[in-house]
Known about the structure:
Heat Shock Protein 90; alpha+beta; 2 domains; Globin-like; two-stranded antiparallel sheet
Amino acid sequence: xxxxxxxxxxxxxxxxxxxxxxxxxxxxxxxxxxxxxxxxxxxxxxxxxxxxxxxxxxxxxxxxxxxxxxxxxxxxxxxxxxxxxxxxxxxxxxxxxxxxxxxxxxxxxxxxxxxxxxxxxxxxxxxxxxxxxxxxxxxxxxxxxxxxxxxxxxxxxxxxxxxxxxxxxxxxxxxxxxxxxxxxxxxxxxxxxxxxxxxxxxxxxxxxxxxxxxxxxxxxxxxxxxxxxxxxxxxxxxxxxxxxxxxxxxxxxxxxxxxxxxxxxxxxxxxxxxxxxxxxxxxxxxxxxxxxxxxxxxxxxxxxxxxxxxxxxxxxxxxxxxxxxxxxxxxxxxxxxxxxxxxxxxxxxxxxxxxxxxxxxxxxxxxxxxxxxxxxxxxxxxxxx
Length: 385
């Protein structure tokens, strides 16, 4: 767990909170007023959390008695240094990292910041002249808001890093035996006696399931990545994105007599989105069409247009001649691991939906009136903001 401190992003938070030089000077000028009560603050924290079943154990089991209390004192005193520099950001970031390491429920972190606000307000009411209370109160709120943002950012970043390492580790451990299984099956198939239809069928089943498991592992990794990756918004040419994905699908799926019809809108459609997430969305939508098309009548159409109901969005309609078995609850179609295909992983549509939501788009799937399946994707145009 060695995530780098994202100074640029954290200073961006500081700017948006309007924690400017004036506010920092206000904190510095009143630093002694608060620092003198740091031990009282620590005792207040200890008393409060020692009476909560879920947090009292952190107080009872420490490296040495009083260590946590000293950390709270130093943290509280540091709020009023009046200098939000890299050193300050490092300390606050480490706070969030530590909370992940000790597996602290983040709701209690939020609760602790509520307590800190309450304690600071009490000091302001009791010791700051009425005419100065608004300025110091506003500065205190800003520094606490910034600290909570930094701590939360560190908590999320490091939690994701831990999750990703576990998932990637599992993926690696599964891929290795699958590779061994596949290699051994291929060798067995070359043995003369293995040409028996029953044996051949067994080998193909094992190989098929091995490939499905490997695909599932990859898709679980992708699904996790979508939820935690910070989007990099860019203006993208929708038609160029679709052509790239269509060519990839044509090379991956060998469909005899495939009738692929493309009907792009006459105007160039520019959309706003993250290139990776947009590619993931379109790829899974097209893959679903190629996998589900009727092999006896392999027709797939891809059309683009502007949304007639909202010109700020573009539409991508993908039709295939397959059959869609609708579950009792249509939402199940986009639930992870739900699949109506014998060789499906049940992750494709859930990944597509997660990617669509991430880039402020929408995806729907439904039976076509005359037979077949329609997948409709709505994407924000580049001038939609």
